[in-house]
Each structure stands twice: as structure tokens, then as C-alpha cells.
Amino acid sequence: MFNTFFDAWSSMALPWAGAPAQGLSGSRFGHGLHDDGKHALRYRLFIPGGERGPMPLIVMLHGCGQDAADFAAGTGMNALAQEHGCLVLYPEQSCSAHCNKCWNWYDRAHHRRGEGEPALIAGLTRHIMAEHAVDAGRVAVAGLSAGGAMAVILGRTYPDLFSAVGCHSGLAHGSAGSDAGALLAMRTGASPPAPPAPSAHAAVPVIVFHGDADATVHRTNSRGVIRQFLDSHALHRRAADAGVAVEAETGSSGGRAFTRHVHREPTGGIVAEEWTVHGAGHAWSGGDARGSYTDVRGPNASQEMLRFFFGSMDA
């Protein structure tokens, strides 16, 4: 259960408070508390420096044992957002909602639109969009591990809100419905459930990163995420053009080899990208050692996600 008054933040009920972001001229990295009347969620928000019009918004969901500041440091997303002119929102899970600050991706109470954590994060996202100059057609969500799994849920339950999804070392929507089921899915992989009937909104594109030496979340879960989004895409199309071609490439970056599979629809648009980073464990690829659960080697997942998000948003 969520507790609206989970710590001292809620008693202050402060609006967003900005502070200069270290090393990024003119930018601000502040904090705030979102309260929807039932539940509360604290967050950090990065605003790039300079005069800008409506900007893209990237929602970043940390993994277990992390907080917003740690995740921002480890992914290096603020520096990239300064360069590209993006807002970055970091919702922060409460210890009252989970003892290890994990998003509850495996709990059925958090699997559906309008309920639980998906509704709370979506509400916070809309709040930021209302308070700041956000381009409503350029909003993406990404996360690591439990945060990656929750990002997948948000992309599938709120395709009208999020334009693209990034999942690093996460799992498919509905991979588990209990604590025991979560452990099993993490250890051995899970077959994702069939996608729901298509909504009026097209399935959003997804980019997935996973290390093939991940001992925490089995690598086959990345394929489950891809398959789930491809199935949803095919259901929405329901036509001859639903077929998706796959292109494979190999390479190396940052001292690690990788294999990338790109899934394109007949019109050329990218529906999904799957990156397998060889030799990498349960960590953000190409990350910064100042944050936890990072691997400084390998392709830079933050850069690739932004490239993918902007391409998807501009398509």
C-alpha cells in the first residue's frame, strides 16, 4: 500500500524547487512532491539552460536500491539533455511502497491503466507537462531493471501519453503476478501474456538493452519485451503491412561487443531495437561510475535511447 504521508517530504508538500545543475551552465536540477490526493511521489526534474520552446520530456525510472539522484548520475542523462534540449523527470519510489525502493512491476495491482503506480507516474508526468514547456508529442519513458519493467507497463497502458519506451535489463508487462513469480521470471525468463485488444492509439516503439552476462534478470526477458511490442504493433495494424523485417548487425563500442536487431515496418519506420551487450552484467551500459549499477564499458545506452526516442518522435 502507498502511504501518502510516507516521510518528511509529504509533510512539507513543497512544489518543485530548482537549483543549478553542477557543471551544466544555466540548467537546474530540482526536486518536488506530487500528490494526487491519494498517493504521493517525490521526484527530481532537470531543466536545461537556455531559452527554448516546447521541449521533449524523458521520464527516467530508477532500479531497486537506487534513488533519482543516483540514477541521474549513473546514466549521465542530464548532460545529454542539456545538449539536446530535453526535460528529464526522475520519479522516486518510496521505501513505504517497497522496502528496497523497487517499482512494483510484478504486482497485479500495478498492471493496468488508471491504477497503482502506472496511474501515479502518469499523473506526475501530466503535472510536469502542465507546469513546463513540454511538447506533448515528444514524451518518452525509460528505466533500469524494475524501472525498465515499469517503463514497459507505462508504454503499454498509456500509449496516448508516451511516444516511445526504453527498457534496460527489464521484463515484459505481465511477466509475473507475485513475489515468487517475479523471482522465477527474473531467473529463467518469462513468456509474456498475449497483448490486449488494440486501442485507438498505435503501439509505441521500444528500445531494449540487456547484458548477456546478467545474473539478476535473465537475458531472455529482453526478447519477451520485444515480442510483446511487436505483437501489439501487429494487432493494431491488422493488415498486410503488419509484417516487420529484422536487420541484424554486430559491432563494438566502449570496449564491449554488441549485437543489435532492428525491427522495421514496410514503410521504413523502426518498431523496436534490441541491443545485446556481450559480457555485460546487470548494469546500465556505457554509464558513469558515479552512479550504482553502471558499466562504464559498452555502447552508451543513454545516447542510443535518446537517438531512438527522437527518431521515433519525429517519424
TrEMBL record:
InterPro entries: AB_hydrolase_fold, Esterase_phb, Plant_Biomass_Hydrol_Est. It holds the Pfam family Esterase_PHB. GO terms for cellular component: extracellular region. Keywords: Hydrolase, Signal. It comes from the Bacteria. One of its GO terms (molecular function) is hydrolase activity. This is PHB depolymerase family esterase. The lineage of its organism: Bacteria, Pseudomonadati, Pseudomonadota, Betaproteobacteria, Burkholderiales.
